[in-house]
Amino acid sequence: METRRTLLVDAFADEPLAGNVAGVVPDAAGLSDDRMGRIAAEIGASETAFLFDADEAGDGAKGANDADDRLRYFTPSTEVDLCGHATIATYGALFAEGAINAGDRTLRTNVGDLEITVDDDGTVWMRQNPPTVDVIDPGGEGGSDLDADRLGDALGIDPAALRDVGADLPVAVASTGLPWLVVPVNFLERLGEAEPDMAAIEAISETYDAAGVYAFTFDAIGAESTLHGRAFAPAVGVPEDPVTGTASGAVGAYLREVGAFDGDFPDELRFEQGHFIDRPGHVRVRVSGDEVRVGGWAMVSMDGELRVPAEDDDEIIEA
């Protein structure tokens, strides 16, 4: 029976047991989709990243350029095309153990080739895909019924907390590789009171082809933070994600698109997340032209070996 080295890595955190934990399998060569899915389910993190050489692209890979690495991402129940925090976790762990040096690398994913930069202090920056932002008009053509009442009921937030900011900050689907439904909320207290109806969140996510709902408020905890966010993604098996890289990049693009700031757009944003589920962390976000980058540190919290049975050792009975 073979073993595979397996890590638990806390991304977007400056200490272990904070931020967003990801599983990382730093040598996934030869693993089938079934084995990766079962390993991810065993690890139990919201996502597990499987690292291959770039020429082991596998089904679903896209990219026109030479790449240094290939990552695939699995939740405990399904494969997802991209995961920001698992990417930060992977490269943070590789840098910490000296497997890679500071500098630039090209990563192949299911959504294309992405640029990764590791700073000398271990900060990992992930360049995401060019952003798209589609504002949703509840009363517009197409008959959308995604108004404050429906969203408030789904999120378990007083709809007045959504209407209060809705005139200046509309609901939108934003993406830098993975679409998120972006929902502004007026105050941190209201966001903290959220008691989401996961079935309703999942239904809305599927309607708008989004991974989940990212609700945010500018009423942040830290004085240096731009906003506080919460991400709910039951459609991909994640009821609440502690700190979300893909959503943070998408929200950074959204804020620029809707003109959320007076004057020049900030050179760097800081998004805090995870405090309401005792996994505080933060994401650094830079938006310039069509370039969106998210960055942060990663801390290895566990390093061990996982036993993996051979493919023909299954005793699953199929009807």
Could you explain how this protein is built, in words?
The model has no long low-confidence stretch (mean pLDDT 92). The protein has seven helices and 18 strands. β16 and β17 (291-296) form a beta hairpin. It has two domains: 2-123 and 299-313, Diaminopimelate Epimerase, Chain A, domain 1; 132-294, Diaminopimelate Epimerase, Chain A, domain 1 (Roll), CATH 3.10.310.10. 21% of the residues lie in helices and 34% in strands. It is of the alpha+beta class and 319 residues long. The chain has helices at residues 33-43, 84-96, 148-155, 160-166, 188-192, 198-207, 245-257; strands at residues 2-11, 20-25, 48-53, 69-74, 79-80, 103-109, 112-118, 124-128, 132-135, 172-175, 179-184, 213-217, 227-233, 238-241, 269-273, 281-288, 291-296, 298-308. The protein starts with a strand and ends in an 11-residue tail after the last strand. It has an 18-stranded mixed β-sheet that branches. It is globular, with a radius of gyration of 19 Å.
Run of helices and strands: EEHEEEHEEEEHHEEHHEEEHEEEE
Mean pLDDT: 92
Helix content: 10-25%
User: In the CATH scheme, what's the topology name of the largest domain?
Assistant: Diaminopimelate Epimerase, Chain A, domain 1
Number of DSSP-assigned strands:
18
For the record, the CATH class of the largest domain is: Alpha Beta
> How much of the sequence is in beta strands?
25-35%
Helical stretch tally: 7
Q: What is the rounded Rg?
A: 19 Å
Tally of domains: 2
**Can you tell me the residue ranges where pLDDT is under 50 for at least 5 consecutive residues?**
none
Instruction: Using the 3D structure, state the CATH architecture of the largest domain.
Output: Roll
Shape designation: globular
- Helix and strand composition category: alpha+beta
